[in-house]
C-alpha cells in the first residue's frame, strides 16, 4: 500500500478493490499486527466511508506508528493473514 498523505496524517488506509475481497465483508473489528508481533492494534473496518464500498481500516495508534516508521508515499507491505487479521511490515531502509 502506498502511504498517501491523508493516511499518514489521519492514521487509516483504504484497501484497494483488487484485495478488498480478502477483508471481512461487514463492518467490525480487525486486528493489526505490527511487524515483530510485539505491537498489535485492534482496528475497525468501515465500508461506508468509500463510495465504492471498499474497506477503510482505522486503528488508534496507527497514525503514530506510520509517522514513526514511514514517510509519505512510502510503500507499506501488508500481509493479509485472514479477513480479520493483517500484518504490517516495517520498512526496509538502506
Please give a structural write-up.
With 94 residues, the protein is α+β, with helices and mostly antiparallel strands. It has three helices and six strands, in the order H-E-H-E-E-E-H-E-E. The protein has a six-stranded mixed β-sheet. The chain is globular and about 35 Å long. The model has no long low-confidence stretch (mean pLDDT 93).
Our Rg estimate from Cα atoms comes to 12 Å
Q: What is the total tally of β strands?
A: 6
Question: What pattern of helices and strands is seen along the backbone?
Answer: HEHEEEHEE
Average residue-wise pLDDT: 93
Q: Which overall shape is indicated by the principal axes computed on the Cα atoms?
A: globular
Query: What kind of oligomer do you see?
Result: single chain
Strand content: 25-35%
- Category by helix and strand content: alpha+beta
The largest β sheet comes out as: 6 strands, mixed
Low-confidence stretches: none
Report how far the terminal alpha carbons are from each other. Answer: 20 Å
Helix content: 10-25%
Adjacency order of strands in the biggest sheet: 1-4-3-2-6-5
Total helical elements: 3
Summary of the model, kept short:
It is built from three helices and six strands. It has 94 residues and is of the alpha+beta class.
Amino acid at each position: 500500500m502506498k502511504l498517501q498523505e491523508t493516511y499518514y496524517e489521519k492514521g487509516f488506509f483504504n484497501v484497494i478493490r483488487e484485495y478488498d475481497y480478502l477483508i471481512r465483508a461487514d463492518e467490525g473489528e480487525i486486528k493489526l499486527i505490527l511487524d515483530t508481533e510485539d505491537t498489535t492494534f485492534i482496528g475497525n473496518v468501515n465500508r461506508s466511508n468509500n463510495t465504492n464500498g471498499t474497506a477503510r481500516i482505522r486503528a488508534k495508534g496507527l497514525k503514530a506508528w506510520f509517522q514513526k516508521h514511514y514517510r509519505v508515499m512510502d510503500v507499506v507491505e501488508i500481509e493479509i493473514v485472514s479477513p480479520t487479521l493483517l500484518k504490517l511490515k516495517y520498512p526496509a531502509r538502506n
